[in-house]
Specification:
The complex is a heterodimer of chains A (about 120) and B (about 120). In chain A, about 0% of the residues lie in helices and about 50% in strands. In chain A, the strands form three sheets. In chain A, strands 2, 5, 6, 10, 11 and 12 form a six-stranded mixed beta sheet that branches. In chain A, β5 and β6 form a beta hairpin. With about 120 residues, chain B is mostly beta strands. Chain B starts with a strand and ends with a strand. The chains are: A mainly beta (about 120), B mainly beta (about 120). Chains A and B meet through β5, β6 and β11 of A and β4 and β5 of B.
Chain lengths: ~120, ~120
């Protein structure tokens, strides 16, 4: 069965530290990849997405992610985090085929940024 | 744009009671999804609709869970009877019809926090 793994449940960083959140997926076919963010008390919002082309994807708020097909990975990065980046981050996979484009999510990583 | 409206925002109920959660998707969105967010499992897809038809409800944990979308607009998720293990945040999402493969523009609701005591 397809799965999405996020390696860290909770990450604590100080402001200006660099961030990398890991995401691996198990599906072997063609996939679309996403990172979503959920700020406290708010709904999920799209940070960035990958369909094809350049494997380095830039999203909003200075986030980027790199798709490495050979490693089935789509790690999220930000060079310098801010206190306002405190949120929960979800990696998600959408695959082609009979399931008609369902988003399958990882368990999420809580990021706490200390001022 | 009010976004997806889920009601209630919070629900506290006793074991054995019937709980009904409601989702008003974005107007015109053909697909509607119910997710459950728990500490242990994260966001799990419970079921989803295309218009008024259930396409997949394999993620529903037990037969106590049922979902409907009678006229292809709003949807309800019913838990009958509720158990303590059902405590979670239930998140609704919707997206428009799409002509091809790709990202379909999911919109997510803020969820209903259910506590079963």
């Amino acid at each position: 069965a397809q799965s999405v793994s996020q390696h860290n449940h909770h990450v604590i960083l100080s402001e200006a530290a660099s961030l990398e959140l890991g995401c691996n997926y198990s599906y072997g076919g063609t996939v679309n990849l996403f990172w979503y963010v959920q700020y406290p008390g708010q709904h999920l919002q799209l940070l960035l997405k990958y369909f094809s082309g350049d494997p380095l994807v830039k999203g909003i708020k200075g986030f980027e992610a790199e798709f490495i097909k050979s490693k089935f990975s789509f790690n999220l990065r930000k060079p310098s985090v801010q206190w306002s980046d405190t949120a929960e981050y979800f990696c998600a996979v959408m695959r082609y085929g009979g399931s008609q484009g369902n988003l399958i999510f990882g368990k999420g990583t809580k990021l706490s940024v200390k001022p | 744009d009010a976004g997806i409206i889920q009601s209630p925002k919070h629900e506290v109920t006793e074991m054995g009671q019937t709980v009904t959660l409601r989702c008003e998707p974005i107007f015109g969105h053909n697909f509607l999804f119910w997710y459950r967010d728990t500490f242990v499992q994260g966001l799990e897809l419970l079921s989803y609709f295309r218009s008024r038809s259930i396409i997949d409800n394999a993620g529903m944990p037990t037969e106590r869970f049922s979902a409907e979308r009678p006229d292809g607009s709003f949807s309800t998720l019913k838990i009958q009877p509720a158990e303590q293990g059902d405590s979670a945040v239930y998140v609704c999402a919707s997206r428009p019809r799409a002509g091809g493969i790709g990202y379909y523009g999911y919109t997510f609701g803020s969820g209903t926090r259910l506590t079963v005591v």
